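Researcher: Next entry in the queue.
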Amino acid sequence: MNPSRIFILRPVATSLLMVGILLAGAVAYKQFAGVGAAEVDYPTIQVITFYPGASPDVMAASVTAPLERQFGQVPGLQQNDLDQLRRQLHHHSAI
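Model: Structure for this entry, 95 residues:
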């Protein structure tokens, strides 16, 4: 006997079984969600500088470049973090 034959012959029972499995999964997800996720607090460095009237080029030369050189020596700091720092400094200096 084909195992799928039972489900083909009884579509209502198949639908009820599917709804039951879906509800059991939803209840299990509600109880399980977040249990396995650990709270991780990544270390961050925040630098705030005020350079009134400075152009983005001046900020890049006098603020961003020295910070990139210093932060580039920090072990574990990735290049994309430095790129994000550059974008933020450029954005704030253009305001």
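Model: The longest helix spans residues 11-32.
Researcher: Noted, moving on.
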